[in-house]
Amino acid sequence: MNLLKRQGFYNSIILYAGTALGFINLTILFQRILTLEEIGFFTIMNTITLLYAQIASVGINNIIFKYLPHFRSDDKKHGGFVTFVIVWCVISFVIFTLVFLYFQGAIVNHYSRKPGSDELAPGAKLLVQYFYYLIPLAFLTMVFTVLESLAITVFKNILSSFLREVFLRVFTLVSVLLIGASLINYHDFLSIYLSGNVAMIAIMLLYIYKGRDFKLAGISPQIVSKKKEFIKYGFFTLLSSTSAALIQSLDNIMLLDITKDLKILGIYTAFFAIALVISLPAKALNRTSLQIIAQAWADNNLPKIGKIYYKTSVMQMLIGSLLFIGLIVNKPFIMVLLHKNEYRAYFDVFVVVGLGFLTDITGGVNGYIVNLSKYYRYTTYFIVGSVLFCIAANWLLIPRIGMMGAAAAYFLTTFVLNFLYWIFVKVKFGLQPFGKTHVLIIIISVIALITGLYLPLGHNVYIDLILRSSIVGVIYISLAYLLKISDDVNQLIDGVLKRSNKI
């Protein structure tokens, strides 16, 4: 757990710094410099390229995590595993890109017309103009993810986290400020964003080369003999990983598909991005937990997996709940940041999406446990089933209640998926993370939330933010400490108190 704590700590700092930058970009700069249509297109561009990269790689990231530990060698050639990864990615990306280009006309036409009309949909010009940006951006996304996966297998995940969460967002921040200064236009902004992705890959390549953990070599007979197993596992995990990405993005895709309005998508995106803050504890812990669980399965160390399962669930729920409460009680400040009046009627959308994120992170590492075990196929069954459920929920709810329908569909889907994982892990492995500790977290969350909502503070939104956040934070952390919710948290607070007493 020392490695988990250390890398989790650094990743937490990076993730929170990245979130701060993302928050500044989306809720302050984007709202004041870009149109809602431009914000909506930027969102759907990233959504599509992420899915594109997932499908085109045919599960290679999961193959790296599961099989590289079995081929690891002291000469760093690992039986030519890296060469195999390169060949796999090139072939799969070319095949998928040809299919994507074949359906170009149908895709553009579908998203460019209003429902039941030949009239151009709002923002359709952007979709047509920048369609070909999707291909290079998807390729760069795939390459970076593969390099990141290789680095994670040797427990080096901090730099890739920094590049993804901070470095790229700095590129975005600078370029949007240049638009605000009338030095560049939206076209240049997208080109700079593409250049940022190229720079990330160059840095990762140099980092991996200097680390000397991998060497190119001919593909060994042992790896060749496993090709059928790789293909089978790759396709199964392609379904699960793509479906997992779809769960995170189906609301965006279907909201645009049903409304054909990038402006509505732009509003929904802003609330979704703010709610994403809640998932940061999970992101920080899971990057390291993933490889530890993979190694624990290789060592058949079930107690270690159970310990990580419990600790991640408790810690993620504890921190995530505090963040969720803090965002709800500071609604006036969020409305000031978002700037545009269109947002004021939709804050409830944020609350429902936030509950979805909180539900998901409270499940801990349940999906990783199943996906890295011999029962990995069930991950595919569960996630594909959840995607079908999500599609049905969106089709039923969005036409009736609009944005709130997309939010409700996301929350219901995360609940169903985590429930399935919880049942499966409990039955197959006898592991489950929930107990009285989670009930106590709910109790202190309700107390802190009610206190924060009814604090009779002043009318200055900035002073109100500081006072309300401080009071809610002190109440929440004090109750968590007194009730001994987490040994790690109590040890941290005790250490701070001891140092304070010495001063």
Automatic annotation (TrEMBL):
Keywords: Cell membrane, Membrane, Transmembrane, Transmembrane helix. It is found in: Cell membrane. Pfam families: Polysacc_synt. The keyword Nucleus does not apply. The keyword Transmembrane helix applies. InterPro entries: Poly_Biosynth_Transport, Polysacc_synth. The chain crosses the membrane at residues 12-33, 39-60, 81-103, 130-154, 166-184, 190-209, 230-250, 262-282, 308-329, 349-369, 381-398, 404-425, 437-455, 461-483. This is O-antigen/teichoic acid export membrane protein. It comes from Mucilaginibacter panaciglaebae.
